[in-house]
Write a structure and sequence with these properties.
Helix content: under 10%
Number of helices: 6
CATH class: Mainly Beta
CATH superfamily: TonB-dependent receptor, beta-barrel domain
Largest sheet: 24 strands, antiparallel
Length: 661
């Protein structure tokens, strides 16, 4: 993959002063109205980007709770989304736990078609790089909301396949509580996590640290990670305000790709024993919420520094690169909630501002190339109104966003463009009878090409057009919290989809595809089979293909037609628990097989995992295993046919001990 590099320029807007004023507005009453006896109730963020009101819970969303996370015994956020949420994930090439998540079959471009947020702060990158889920302590997660389908009205660029929102816990009362977890396993796996939180009336502090070391399944694929997350907040009945710091350090060895013959000979081998990479990330966030009668104000201001380094050593020499990126986000918004008789109305108005820069330096055998710089500024205005009357809900939203991008290489401007985009959606939900909900969604979402994609196009220095998707979803939910089934029919019709085409030019290029379409069905169920057994299942069947142009009728690559996930959880009342899960993934086209001429396909596979835990007082001891049948398989293969294969992990057993206080 070839990268372009980006320019720095001063932001045209200055959010810091406004954010400081908003924070102080929330902070003063919070300090004045401390109630030592009142515990802070957990609050969740809904589809309106505000704290939950039961009347306006997200329509058709998948929700993973902290209780489900504990029951399944997952140790990181990405794993929770895959195991509990049933989301398909592709093995990361850097040995980390940050699998590439794919909602609705977007293949190699999946990570750029899903927006990931942490308490309203965007974690998704403006480059070909996935969100660092591993920097989020699993112990702090209150819930994870997965909203599949177009969501650009509230979340903007890249929300065509959906949104993954991670909501963290809020401190409870004056208690001191926390946990310490240690874990060891095969392939030199060692991990330690510690979490602590303390409240003093309306003021609270929390801190989380973790250290992970693993040699991993493949040769030259070791990873070392160190994370810290800490925060302080003041809260009252009228709102809250606070600060957070998140620091992540990651060093990885890169095992590289294999051919099918090499994979079958030894999937653990590497052909690149000296390749390595690292990512250092610092994120600083200020936030506030303030209620003023029927109005509620909220805002987040976040700044992130990110340094990525890589070294590749080949037979023709070595290349090294360093990318230094910075991103500042500011998201003020206001909500008005009104009620009149049987009618409840929620109106949300908001703005999103972002300023992103990156500088890049690379060398080949010690000879430096010119420094490349790039920047992107975006500003958006959105509105969403939802009405609930009796058993019916109806919501409409619209968004207008402007992107300004430029790129400079060795002082020479490569491009400087502005792109304006619109999104809209219309959603409805009706309670037909107790336990029977039907819903429908329609709208337009969008994505703009990131700096890496614009840096390698068929026409040099000509940025790609924005991707536009027209989205449709029909569904129904049957049952209650004890037994519930949700069925969705969906369709995405895309124009100018942004994708890497290996057949463009001599080396391939990032292009705007001819019109494409994705359509299918999703079924999600969770039910209590008995007092001690719970079953959950997810099924996705979809078709992803070109509908116009020379490739009309061809399948989109790296998209399995069918994915099925099944889990059974056992929790008797004797301090024991067990969890067993299976996932089956259908065959799919190799990543470079745009013409669909390769007679071979990436094989289908099924994996089995399990965990048994026993509690003894404040201690929990567990044994867990992944890929228990030791299946040799792969989810990433970017070559044209039987090549470019990145093997997935073999069987791994882990032992853990956790102490809660």
């Amino acid at each position: 993959m070839i990268f372009s590099i980006l320019p720095s320029r001063a932001p045209a807007w200055k959010p810091l002063a406004l954010a400081s004023a908003l924070t102080l507005c929330a902070l003063n009453p919070a300090i004045a109205q401390i109630n030592d006896d009142k515990a802070l109730a957990p609050v969740v963020v809904t589809a309106s980007r505000f704290a939950n009101d039961p009347a306006f819970s997200p329509i058709g969303a998948t929700v993973i709770t902290s209780e489900q996370i504990r029951e399944a015994g997952v140790s990181n956020v990405n794993q929770a989304i895959r195991k509990i949420g049933g989301v398909f994930g592709r093995q990361s090439g850097d040995g980390t736990q940050d699998f590439g998540l794919d909602l609705r079959g977007f293949g190699a471009a999946s990570i750029n078609n899903v927006v990931v947020l942490l308490d309203g702060i965007r974690l998704s990158e403006n480059e070909i790089s996935g969100a660092l889920f591993s920097s989020v302590p699993i112990e702090t997660v209150e819930r994870i909301e997965i909203v599949r389908g177009g969501s650009s009205v509230l979340y903007g660029d890249g929300a065509t396949a959906g949104v993954i929102q991670i909501i963290t816990k809020r401190p409870q009362g004056n208690a001191l509580h926390g946990s310490i977890t240690t874990e060891i396993g095969q392939f030199g796996h060692k991990e330690v996590r510690a979490s602590v939180a303390k409240g003093w009336g309306g003021f609270s502090l929390d801190a989380n640290v973790s250290k992970l070391e693993s040699d991993n399944y493949r040769d030259n694929n070791a990873v070392r990670q160190n994370n810290f997350s800490g925060g302080a907040q003041w809260a009252s009945n009228e709102g809250r305000a606070g600060l957070r710091v998140d620091i992540a350090r990651q060093d990885s060895r890169l095992a590289g790709a294999l051919s099918l013959a090499q994979f079958e000979e030894n999937p653990r081998q590497t052909l690149s024993p000296n390749d390595m990479a690292s990512i250092d990330t610092n994120r600083y966030t200020a936030f506030m919420e303030r209620r003023l009668g029927a109005f509620e104000l909220a805002a987040e201001l976040s700044h992130r520094d990110r340094t990525a380094k890589a070294l590749f050593v080949g037979s023709f020499g070595s290349s090294a690169s360093q990318y230094d990126g910075r991103m500042t986000q500011f998201s003020p918004r206001v909500r008005h909630l009104s009620m009149s008789g049987d009618l409840t109305n929620e109106l949300v108005l908001g703005m999103d501002f972002a300023h992103w820069t990156r500088s890049a330096i690379s060398t080949f055998d010690g000879f430096p190339s010119p420094q490349a710089n790039a920047s992107q500024q975006s500003k958006a205005l959105y509105a969403r109104d939802e009405v609930k009357v009796g058993n019916a809900r109806l919501a409409f939203g619209a968004r207008h966003e402007i992107f300004d991008k430029d790129s400079v290489n060795n002082g020479v401007g490569l491009y400087d463009i502005s792109q304006a985009l619109n999104a809209w959606d219309l959603q409805g939900n009706y309670l037909v009878a107790p336990g029977v909900n039907v819903f429908a969604k329609g709208g337009q979402s969008y994505r703009v090409a990131n700096v890496d994609e614009n840096g390698f196009t068929p026409v040099v220095n000509q940025p790609l057009k924005p991707q536009i998707s027209h989205d449709l979803e029909l569904g129904a939910t049957l049952g209650d919290i004890e037994k519930k089934v949700t069925v969705k029919l969906f369709q995405h019709r895309l124009k100018n989809e942004i994708f890497f085409d290996p057949t463009a030019g001599f080396f391939g290029a990032n292009v705007n595809l001819d019109p494409t379409k994705r359509q299918g069905i999703e079924i999600e169920t969770r039910m209590r089979l008995a007092s001690t057994f719970t079953l959950s299942a997810n099924l996705q069947h979809l078709s992803a293909q070109f509908i116009e142009g020379p490739n009309a009728g061809n399948e989109i690559t790296l998209v399995p037609k069918n994915i099925a996930t099944l889990r059974i959880n056992w929790m008797p009342d004797n301090s024991q628990s067990a969890d067993v899960g299976m996932q089956w993934v259908d065959s799919q086209r190799y990543g470079g097989d745009f013409s669909n001429t390769c007679s071979a396909r990436m094989p289908s596979f099924a994996t089995l995992d399990g965990r048994y835990a026993k509690r003894v007082g404040a201690w929990e001891f567990a044994i867990a295993g992944s890929n228990l049948t030791d299946k040799q398989y792969f989810t990433n293969a970017y070559g044209n046919c039987q090549s470019g294969i990145y093997p997935d992990n073999g069987r791994q057993l882990k032992l853990s001990a956790r102490y809660d206080f």
